[in-house]
Amino acid sequence: MMLWVGTSWKMNGTRAFARDYARALAGLDVASLGDIQPFIIPSFTAIDVAASELEGTRILVGAQNAAWEDAGAWTGEVSIPQAIDAGATLIEMGHSERREYFGETDETVNLKIKAALRHGAIPLVCFGEPAEVFEAGETLPFITAQINAALDGIADTSRVLLAYEPIWAIGEHGRPPRREDLVRTFAALAERYGDRVEAILYGGSVNHDNNKDILGIPGVGGLFIGRSAWTAEGYIRNLELAAEAVRE
Ligand code: PGA
């Protein structure tokens, strides 16, 4: 089974940063990683730089968001064809930061999945519950409602990547998950969606200490990493750990 291990840099990094980072990755012997599919998701401004450095490797480059319409009067938006033109093959959507600050909803995620698939891009669909939902033991109904709404009316979701990103675990105020926080959730996600999608990733305070343990949880099909992959060295270490997890 292929494990997807990637990072979003969020709103970080100049084009020079992207060039150096991607160059460090391009020098990596990806074949030695085995069944790992690496991907990086820079800001829009750096997609082309990263993609040209990584041309000819099997490391994918993505966009952190994109519009569901192809073109037109949508000031400030970037369309999926434009993101693809810059070098993206993967489109992230539904991240909790976009939901909280920029009005992303399950409905817009649904439109964006359809648009990505129409253009042959891979949708990376993030979902996850806030702390109070987790503490109330309501995680599963909350996230299955998000996923069902996002996938609504899409007959073939086999190219979709799902990423479970509990809000309580994300970012500098997040708490790294314990194994027992994720086991039941991933068992249920795998049972309900495992056959319908490409893979189900975990994201939120992944670091070098918990990387392999999380990958060892049944149903986890990869990692979506923020801070611990914001340097090339940090990301490469995560890739190496994931490769070890596959071998063990
Ligand atoms: P983090 O970010 O790894 O820095 O917690 C994860 C995410 O938001 O995807």
TrEMBL record:
Keyword RNA-binding set for record: no
Residue stretches spanning the membrane: none
Pathway named in the protein's UniProt entry: Carbohydrate degradation; glycolysis; D-glyceraldehyde 3-phosphate from glycerone phosphate: step 1/1; Carbohydrate biosynthesis; gluconeogenesis
Reactions it catalyzes: D-glyceraldehyde 3-phosphate = dihydroxyacetone phosphate
Annotated Pfam families: TIM
Compartment(s) of residence: Cytoplasm
Cross-referenced PROSITE patterns: TIM_2
The EC number(s) this enzyme carries: 5.3.1.1
Keywords, sorted A to Z: Cytoplasm, Gluconeogenesis, Glycolysis, Isomerase
MF (Gene Ontology): triose-phosphate isomerase activity
Presence of keyword Nucleotide-binding: no
Origin superkingdom: Bacteria
Quaternary structure and partners: Homodimer.
Family: Belongs to the triosephosphate isomerase family.
Record's protein name: Triosephosphate isomerase
UniProt organism field: Actinotignum sanguinis
